[in-house]
Design goal:
This protein is of the alpha+beta class and 365 residues long.
């Protein structure tokens, strides 16, 4: 059935490519970041594998990824250059390196483009332009790897030496255009002055455990997006059951289409991301049941979603759940509890608006 489904998807996708030609590559290049954001890009994997296996190359999806990946890197570089916020600059530089060198775009997508919004517009426009050039040049991939500087060799055609020049041209266009567009369109920066004002507010916000299990530091998570703090500071929990409750009183801002993650904002402006499992976006929401919707008001302890941990493990994925303060740079400090067992109604993390008192629990990350 998997073979039939893969062949069916391949026939539809490349049927469109046969009709539209280079325009199809441009369109996919433009919407690729949006597909990655929702996990929909996974549907192309069997298509790419099947096409390369049958014909030796793939000339639509993979060439479109060049512009999409490199454009997110270029936009992140522009943010790093223009922002006056030191922590945002560090995040943007790390995200740009990941996208440009390795073709890994999630840090740039979630840490910069979606967060600041306008860089995403620049990336979409650039993806279309670069995709059009790649399509007109007839670039095709002869293997499957996330397009980036180190993996660009997959597009070299031994029978067409000029393919090397076209690859370099598409990559250069992607970086330069997205960089320039981001500077032209601009973005709403996180002013240093505003951050300092937030930090001087009295008091702190305490978060309750969203799941029962063993707490640990983000640095112990087997996913660099979280372990390196690219999305913010926080903690992780190896859960004992699949019930996820709200750690704060506030509003549900985002329920991901794949239901593996939920975003919340509390009454003090603390933005919390609860991400159940690692790479669980690939499961397309099957092990998850959402109990809330975007815009809902929740109290501490209200159930947010139910996760089938056994199904996640059966898929060969980790159930480790990350609790991240995505606007960490707006606060003085964030202190998770020490590693150990936690349960509902226990405080597991404290967000400080001012200098911490001497007697605080040790931080894990």
């Amino acid at each position: 059935m998997g073979v039939w489904l893969g062949n069916g998807i391949s026939a539809v996708v490349y049927g469109i490519h046969g009709k539209l030609g280079w325009l199809a590559v441009a369109i996919v290049g433009a919407i690729w970041p949006l597909l990655v954001m929702t996990g929909m890009h996974r549907v192309f994997t069997p298509t790419i594998v099947t096409t390369i296996a049958e014909t030796g190359s793939e000339a639509m999806v993979m060439p479109s990824e060049i512009g999409a990946n490199m454009s997110l890197g270029g936009a992140s570089l522009a943010v790093a250059m223009k922002t006056k916020n030191r922590e945002l600059r560090q995040t943007a530089l790390a995200a740009a390196s990941s996208a440009l060198i390795a073709g890994i775009t999630e840090p740039a997508l979630y840490g910069v483009a979606i967060r600041l919004k306008r860089p995403m517009i620049a990336s979409v426009i650039t993806g279309f332009i670069a995709g059009a050039v790649a399509g007109l040049a007839g670039l095709a991939s002869h293997s499957m790897a996330a397009p980036g500087l180190f993996t660009s060799v997959q597009f070299i055609d031994k029978d067409n030496p000029t393919s090397i020049l076209w690859i370099a041209a598409v990559m250069a266009i992607s970086v330069v255009v997205s960089f320039a567009l981001t500077l032209i369109i601009g973005f709403e920066d996180i002013p240093v002055e505003d951050d300092e004002a937030d930090m001087t507010n009295d008091g702190s916000v305490k978060l309750m455990a969203p799941m029962t299990g063993m707490a640990k530091g983000l640095h112990d998570v087997a996913d660099e997006v979280f372990s390196k703090g690219l999305l913010g500071k926080g903690m992780a929990i190896d859960p004992e059951d699949g019930k996820v409750v709200s750690p704060i009183a506030g509003t549900v801002t985002t329920v991901f289409p794949t239901k593996h993650a939920i975003g919340l904002t509390d009454d003090n402006g603390v933005e919390v991301l609860i991400h159940v499992g690692i790479d669980t976006v690939s499961l397309n929401g099957e092990p998850f049941t959402a109990k809330v919707a975007a815009g809902d008001r929740v109290a501490v302890g209200d159930e947010l979603l139910e996760a089938d941990l056994d199904a996640i493990k059966a898929a060969g994925l980790s159930t480790t759940t990350m609790v991240v303060i995505t606007n960490s740079d707006q606060f003085k400090d964030i202190a998770p509890v020490a590693p150990g067992h936690v349960s509902f109604k226990e405080h597991v993390m404290e967000v400080f608006h001012h200098d911490k008192e001497a007697d605080t629990e040790p931080a894990m990350a």
